[in-house]
């Protein structure tokens, strides 16, 4: 790998860290300190929607870079619109730790939740066999995903846990790999440069 290519990729990573990751950290901090009974939070929401939306955008953006914008290129060839949800699914499935609970529901996150948050309704039809409940819980390790029974299966998702996972994945699986030239860094650099 050329040193110049590595330097260009590092600049992109620094930019993503200073914008996208910094914003996720800020929303995470605000959400973790939220208390609806205290000022100045009295008339504010807990940011459960915002944190999930921002983290899904983060997964999509990071996925686009680490996979070399392949879905955009394929869509261009087919004169079509890219399925950006594919970046979210692939990023979560390939980059989150192997036993991470969010991997089990990557398609729900990428399709159902993203569509619901962006458009205000579920994709295509609303007869899904589950309900999603977005929560903020400072203890991101304990039960990032919790299920409960009712008329439908309920899935409770912890926004802090999801934010922590996106931040950690960026740091350990992308930034450190490139900066320390770990295994896979050449391919990662090539993919990032193809995107830019």
Number of helical segments?
7
Q: N-to-C SSE series?
A: HHHHHEEEHH
Shape: globular
| Distance between the ends | 17 Å
* Rg over C-alpha atoms, rounded to the nearest angstrom: 18 Å
> What is the total tally of β strands?
3
Beta-strand residue percentage: 5-15%
Poorly predicted runs: none
Spatial strand order of the main sheet: 1-3-2
Structural class: mainly alpha
Helix percentage range:
55-70%
Mean pLDDT: 85
Give the gist of this structure.
With 196 residues, the protein is mainly α. 58% of the residues lie in helices and 8% in strands. The mean pLDDT is 85.
Please characterize this protein's 3D structure.
- By secondary structure, this protein is mostly helical.
- 58% of the residues lie in helices and 8% in strands.
- It has 7 helices and 3 strands; from the N terminus they run H-H-H-H-H-E-E-E-H-H.
- The longest helix has 30 residues, at 3-32.
Tag the structure with descriptive keywords:
mainly alpha; 196 residues; 58% helix
SSE order and pairing:
Elements: H1 3-32, H2 48-66, H3 70-77, H4 85-95, H5 106-119, E1 130-135, E2 145-148, E3 153-158, H6 159-179, H7 185-195
Parallel strand pairs: 1-3
Antiparallel strand pairs: 2-3
Helix pairs in contact: 1-2, 1-6, 1-7, 2-4, 2-5, 2-6, 4-5, 6-7
